[in-house]
Amino acid sequence: MPERVTEGGGAAARRPGTRLAGFGLLAAALVALPHFLSFSQKEIAVFLVINVLLVVSYRLLTLTGEWSLGHVVIMGVGGYASAIFSKALGVPVPLAMLAGAITAAAVAFVLAFPLFRMKGFYFLIGSFAAGEVIRLLWKRFRIPFGGPKGLKLIPSVPDLELGPITIDFFEPVSYYYLCLIVVSISVFILYRIERSRIGLTFHAIHWQDHLAESVGVSTWRYRTLAFVIASFFAGLSGALLAHYIGTVNPNRFDVGEMVFVLIWAIVGGTATIYGPVLGVVVLTIINEVVLRQLGFDQMRPLFYGAILIASILFLPQGLESLVGKARDAWARRGE
Amino acid sequence: MRSILKRSNISRRKFLGTTATAAVLAGVSAPNLAFGAAKTVKVGFLAPLTGEVAAWGLPGLYGCRIWAEKVNAAGGLKVGGDSYQVELVPYDNEYAPDKARTGATKLIREDGVKFIMMLGGDTWPAVQPIANRTDMLVSTLLPSDLSPDTKTLIAPCEVHPIYNVTGVEWLAQNKPGLKTTVICAQDDALGRPSVATYLAAFEAEGIDVLDTVFFDLSATDFAPIMTSMLAKKPDILCLDTAYADYVHPLCEQAFLQGFKGQIISCTADFYEKIIEKTSKEFMEGFIFQFPDFDDPALNGPQINFPDPNGFYTEYNRRWPGEWGAVSWEYASILDLWRAGAEKAGSVEPTEVLSAMKAGGKGLHAFGEAEWWGKELFGIDNALVGDWPVVVIENGKAVIKEFKSIPAWWRKHGKLLVKHFDKMGEMYYQRG
């Protein structure tokens, strides 16, 4: 597992005004973004925003030092639950999404009992096994999970009537903005959790779990808390996905998909909240936009693998380390 | 020149202005004239080109490239007095629904395709709302995608898994002493309806199914699966419909564990490699459903695939060792689509669809066929006719007979509905 780096940044970077301006610029860019994209790139942008939430929520779990192989399955739990709530029980889609996220958190809470009897490599394998059990349950029980084919014709987010304007969430631009709002709020919450005393305790458990226990911290309780919170947001990302593409099936949430999440986190880095975001954004753009436009459709796995190897060799602390270095260089320039 | 201008009272400035305008207009209109002579119609190819399902996408794209080159070289499609060159636009959906949706959006809204060919399966439900909204004509190789609400989806070539009944029927007629079988199947949207079909086919022939073993797509060790199958001592091993990545190790395990009986499977993609891993003797008599197109039986008058032997030769020249079940299928769908467009006098999806289905019959690659499927899929959008039974003889796939699927359906249709219903595969049972 990659070593964490300390967050870089000089005095200029830490200045609240500079930071606020930076966020303002980023927000403006994200709002304007779809208007510069082609139709298919807008679709990719929707999935990218959803994946940002997935990988940032995954990072919260890694704060306690545990790397799971079941996070994508937990995403699927959110997607399946939201689909079932809305399709079979007639729950309005926004509420179903929330219920899907809560279901994912509840499943994580139950799984925490056996899983957090393990640590490190054993937790990794245990999480994989737990995920496979859930996936096989989806396959086994046609009712309510739809069996191997999964569920389809999942209701989409209903159109929003704003006076004369109707917002159709089937359109990628509308759904992009919806996801952007949901994901921004979620990422902000995750950021605040990390910066709170709870987040500091997560870090403490990661680096000195015995020491933390010696001062009265229940490592099991905090690991469970991180797992449940991360799963809530992973479930939310699954719900966002399910109601957009209108289908969920067991194969969509298999370990192959989980490998992508790991790659995003490793290539981006997990020391900062923007590390995995950089990983998923850069790799998605390379994989889905650049390589496709260059006509390398069938060669993409090869390039993807090469990028992963190169980043581990030459950027062992992830893309986020470049940001830290750039900020330091900028701060030194100003001194 | 100056004297001419003087005589006609045209100022030099006016002359130059008029000439420049004419030149610009000529420049603008010239490409239109050129386009009028060579129109282009785009066809989307939205299938897995990478990943574990690529074997049912990429070889099909190769076949389509040969088809498009031949058709374009012969002047293209003749539609409503115009000639259209066909341009294939591939998009690798990696067999993932989200990427299929992105691909469909790109093909329809950016590339302006008039027809999309898909493998179907997991990827279709994400494309369905887009196809419905845009009335886009889409083809699938998996008719289990069909339902009453998929009006623009057709299965005009492969009626998977219904044609598997022909292999069992032939087996029972030619090897009547074989009375027991064990089925093993990948546990997914391909494997399960195929199991229902094999169960119906075996029941129709009085062959006893001793066990049905499902394995997950994540399976890598096939030794225990084969051991449990062989423990039942079946006369026939049925490998159902499985990816090449599973058929190969299953055959290898059957060989290693000393199985001497009959094997039947939907596919045997890259069977030469299976023979390399086992032996020619072991694979002798292996029954499956997908012929090599150098087979002389494909030169019969009923075949509607142009020059199958030449197609096979060209395919293997360009992509040696890549021939598989789908190599010809997407190309044969293009043939049907072309016939539909030429008959409709239009390349517009809805008009082509109407022309294709007019009269309830169509020219399938293996002979005249009927649009069928209401009882099983809730819609008559599957083109069903004869299908070949292929047997490996002396290391080579040989067509033994073309058998009629509609004839089997008329005799045993109720069995198929019974097993589809039992497996939850009827259109009204799907999630």
Question: What attributes characterize this protein structure?
Answer:
heterodimer; A: mainly alpha; two-stranded antiparallel sheet; 4 strands; globular; disordered N terminus; B: about 425 residues; alpha/beta; Rossmann fold; four-stranded parallel beta sheet; about 20% strand
Describe the fold and architecture.
The complex is a heterodimer of chains A (335) and B (431). By secondary structure, chain A is mainly α. Chain A has 2 domains: 40-252, no CATH class; 254-320, no CATH class. Chain A is built from 15 helices and 4 strands. In chain A, the strands form 2 sheets. In chain A, strands 1-4 form a two-stranded antiparallel sheet. Chain A is globular. Residues 1-10 of chain A have low confidence and may be disordered. Chain B is 44% helix and 19% strand. Chain B has a 6-stranded mixed beta sheet with strand order 2-3-1-4-5-6, with helices on both faces. A 4-stranded parallel beta sheet of chain B has the order 8-7-9-10, sandwiched between helices. The termini of chain B are far apart.
Distance N to C terminus of chain A: 36 Å
Characterize the largest beta sheet of chain A: strand count, sense, and whether it forms a barrel.
2 strands, antiparallel
Show the largest interface: A-B, 40 and 37 residues
Shape of chain B: globular
Strand content of chain A: under 5%
- How many individual helices of chain A? 15
Helix content of chain B: 40-55%
Based on secondary structure, the structural category of chain A is: mainly alpha
- The topology string of helices and strands of chain A comes to HHHHHHHEEEHHHHEHHHH
Instruction: Work out the oligomeric state of the chains in this entry.
Output: heterodimer
Low-pLDDT residue spans of chain B: 1-10, 15-36
How much of the sequence lies in strands of chain B comes to 15-25%
